[in-house]
Amino acid sequence: GYEYTPFLDYDDKTLYIAGSGYNGATANMTDIFKVTRLDETWTKWSSPEKVQGVINTDDWDSFFYISPTKDYVYVYGYLRVNIYASKEKKQPNGVENRIEMYPHQQSSAF
Fold first, then answer.
1. 5: Cβ contacts below 8 Å, ≥ 6 apart
2. What is the pTM of this model?
3. Residue among 74, 57, 56 nearest 65 (CA)
């Protein structure tokens, strides 16, 4: 597998990557995965987990980007750009936030 187009979230702890070869990846395609920094050293990270929801399609997905206001998430795919409206939700434990994505717009890539 391979990985590319990293995006470090604004919390400086969550890294999103496009990759293949991870558990749950679409065959012969790339999907968006995330890892979480486990301490302050930048050397210990969680195992990659596939981003759930509408972000990953059955096609090639990459170039994940969250707008600074966290209102929109952009994902580039083969000949398309998907834009998702997001709604930040608190986890039940009240410690972490997660972003739920809702389809907003799809357009042809230029």
1. 17, 18, 62, 63, 64
2. 0.76
3. 74
